[in-house]
Amino acid sequence: MTKYSSRYASNPQAVKQYDTKQLRDEFLIDNLMEEGEVILIYSHYDRYIAGSAVPTIPLKLETIDPLKANYFLERREMGIINVGANGTIVVDGTSYELGFKDALYIGSGNKDILFKSEDAKNPAKFYINSAPAHTSYPTQKVSLAEANKLELGSMETANHRTVNQMIIGGVVTTCQLQMGMTELRPGSVWNTMPAHVHDRRMEVYFYLDIPENQAVCHFMGEPQETRHLWMQNHQAVISPPWSIHSGSGTSNYSFIWGMAGENLDYGDMDVCKITDLR
Q: Taking the CB of residue 56, how many other CB atoms lie within 10 A of it?
């Protein structure tokens, strides 16, 4: 079964007036990883979709009404990262096995997508991102070991981290979708600092590896008008193009980043000086 909901774009002037509940209702995605379901959230920022599939039984990816399409990937591409036990994704009859933190890119034009778990009692947990696509590129698996790895930050600034670029130029050819995973080292808690904005693309963060009874404080908003959201394990947050996206945890953790827009240059961003944040 597929469940979906829509989120409309918000003006930054309006967001300044939001209370905590409004902010969470607008940007937090807190209903992912429901067993036996495909969950999809359709954002009007760059028509981006974030979601999940947890197949305790085989789950078929179905189209949803906002797409006005005969099948889900008729005019879309998709990236998936498995954050659970071993599973398989069948793409038009071809099977791709994904272990923990392995990724799969699926190009547009593929009609039949099926999610399966190796063990239904210990299911795969597929985190899904999707963006519109104008060209069909080959489906490709990228294991965590095959990711392009960047070592950034330091222990002195509490942000020593490994950025795993997985569905990104140089690793996989896509229309506009980019995905990867950042893993913070023990003792480091800050992600994406210095913070930045990128006006030509939006982003979604999905937090994982948060230990029990710990949390991450995610910062968003215009650089001079920031807000925060407290995040739990396997929750996601929508980041508009005008918003910073950064966070600090009560422990180290990981997060999956996904982006789409009119530019595939990973380094295209406007960095905000830490001392200028408000």
A: 15
Q: What is the pLDDT along the chain (278 residues), one digit of tens a residue?
A: 789 999 999 999 999 999 999 999 999 999 999 999 999 999 999 999 999 999 999 999 999 999 999 999 999 999 999 999 999 999 999 999 999 999 999 999 999 999 999 999 999 999 999 999 999 999 999 999 999 999 999 999 999 999 999 999 999 999 999 999 999 999 999 999 889 898 888 999 999 999 999 999 999 999 999 999 999 999 999 999 999 999 999 999 999 999 999 878 777 788 999 999 99
Residue with tokens 């954050």: 83
Would you state the torsion angle of the CA atoms of residues 18, 19, 20, 23, taken in this order, to the nearest 10 degrees?
-10
Per DSSP, the residues of 243-274 read: SEEEEEESS--EEEEEEEES---TT--EE--G
Tokens of 272: 């905000």
Instruction: Output the CA torsion sign for 261, 265, 267, 273.
Output: negative
| Continuous segment of H or E residues that includes residue 203 | strand 201-208
Cα–Cα–Cα angle for 232, 159, 49, nearest 5°?
Answer: 45
The length of the chain is: 278
